[in-house]
Design brief:
- The chain has four helices and no strands.
- By secondary structure, the chain is mainly alpha-helical.
- The chain has helices at residues 5-21, 26-33, 37-44, 54-63.
- The radius of gyration is 11 Å and the shape is globular.
- It is 51% helix and 0% strand.
- It has a single domain (5-72), classed as 434 Repressor (Amino-terminal Domain), CATH 1.10.260.40.
């Protein structure tokens, strides 16, 4: 899947939305993602990385019981961990 800036912006939105819906701190979410808190803060403020680690995508999808592709789809935060 070739990503675009739009895909990355949706991913950034979903990271923040999932964290808030599941009442996770930035520290907890960074640990789940396998990234630093400063990197998480940048993502949450739509500062786009050059690339997203596939490990980060898989860590998130596993934790939230989502397909990796759902992280690049608007509305991922509405799917609960038990729905998938």
């Amino acid at each position: 899947m070739k990503s675009t800036n739009k895909d990355l912006l949706i991913f950034c939105h979903n990271i923040r939305a999932l964290r808030r819906v599941h009442k996770l701190t930035q520290k907890e979410m960074a640990k789940i993602c396998g990234i630093s808190i400063s990197t998480l803060r940048k993502l949450e403020h739509n500062i786009l990385p050059v690339k997203i680690s596939i490990r980060t995508v898989f860590n998130l999808s596993k934790y939230f019981n989502l397909l990796p592709s759902q992280l690049f789809t608007l509305g991922a935060e509405t799917i609960s961990r038990t729905d998938a």
